[in-house]
Amino acid sequence: MKPTQIVKGVYDVGVNDWNIEDFHGYSTPLGTSYNAYLIVDEKVVLIDTVKKEFTDQMLANIERIIDPRKIDFVISNHTEMDHSGGLAQVMHRIGEEKTVYCSKMGAKNLKLHFHQQLNLEPVSDGQELSLGSRTLTFLETRMLHWPDSMFTYLKEDKILFSSDGFGQHYAGFEKFDDAVGNAIMPHAKKYFANILLLYAPLILKLIDRVAKMGLQIDIICPDHGIIWRKDPAKIINAYFQWSKQIPRPKAVLVYDTMWHSTEKMANAIASGLAAEGIDVRPMYLRKWHRSDIMTEVLDAKAVIIGSPTLNNSLFPTVSDIITYMKGLKPQNKIGAAFGSYGWSGEAVKQITKELQEMKFEIIEPIRKQYIPDKKGLEESYEFGQTIGRTIHSSLKREFS
Ligand code: FEO
């Protein structure tokens, strides 16, 4: 693919990974891209690399612009291997003596990843680096989303190279927001919900800090997906909203089932919620991927989890989503558990305990032995209605 020129002398030399379906446990049906950026000024700089197996493709992209040996230095905004995997090969090609600028934690982490001599030069927050006619500024963004993460800002062109921030797992020939339009937003939301949600309070602080600095941003170049040039404020505003985790009258109903009894309860609960005007999303765990479920959880007020009891415990898929969700620490939710059981019925209690640990507001759970009868399904429906009414009263309190 011919490298895209973003502004004069600034190119995306990254690659599309069309075939990846699972990015460390995150479903990527449209693949992803590993963006890397080349700035050709009096000095030539490469910002980030790509996943190791795509390095030759990236170097071929660079060759279409300039001899890679003319690169004067490399900036590593983030150590994770989808952006640093190609670093050793790149340095071998351009000259191992050349400098790799990174954050202080980046220097530590790159050593632990590569176990080889790299000429690492740690930079501090706000430090500048001249390229000749243009200047780069480094912005430390620790824990967004790794301890080493930083952004790099190209002053004269007002371009923010934002590493994973504002990214999307999306592979396409369109490289800019104006070519994709709103269709990109669900991918950006999914990325936020699954990669950055845990750090939402830090994102709010970062947005505030950038506003106070008066940093003008005309273009955002993330390390995944499209580049924001038409309306960078759109994704910044979306991050502001998502970071605040403002809920809607919406419930995510996640469940698995062995002999359809928990499923029957789920359907009745969903009907009860819908009858109360709640936007309910029933998500059967063998149909929906955990990363799609988390995307729906982001703006939901309630998370309702159902499981049969298997060997005195949760059904394995239910354990999986709970572990995943717990790690991402969604805030400000109502939680409820339900399920069918045969004889011991521990699962519902175990889900409730997990929801309590996530600091959700708990609604008394419901469980039914073996197959729910008409009364059991009516009670499940009423359980859904109770949750629905609690969602409304809770949102009323929050927004009054
Ligand atoms: Fe795209 Fe944190 O790596």
Describe it.
By secondary structure, the chain is of the alpha/beta class. It has 2 domains: 4-244, Metallo-beta-lactamase, Chain A, CATH 3.60.15; 251-391, Flavodoxin domain (Rossmann fold, 3-Layer(aba) Sandwich), CATH 3.40.50. The protein is built from 13 helices and 21 strands. It has helices at 55-63, 81-84, 87-94, 104-114, 177-180, 185-196, 200-213, 232-244, 261-275, 290-297, 316-328, 347-357, 374-399; strands spanning 4-7, 10-12, 15-17, 22-23, 26-27, 32-34, 37-40, 44-47, 73-75, 99-102, 119-122, 128-130, 135-140, 150-154, 159-161, 219-221, 248-255, 279-284, 300-306, 334-341, 361-369. The chain has a 7-stranded mixed β-sheet. Strands 12-13-14-15-16 form a 5-stranded mixed β-sheet, with no helix packed on it. Strands 18-17-19-20-21 form a 5-stranded parallel β-sheet, sandwiched between helices. Strand 1 and strand 2 (10-12) form a beta hairpin. Helix 6 (185-196) packs across helix 8. The longest helix is centred in the last third of the chain and has 26 residues, at 374-399. The mean pLDDT is 97. Bound molecules: MU-OXO-diiron. MU-OXO-diiron binds at residues 78, 80, 82-83, 145, 164, 223-224. The site of MU-OXO-diiron has 8 residues, from helix 2.
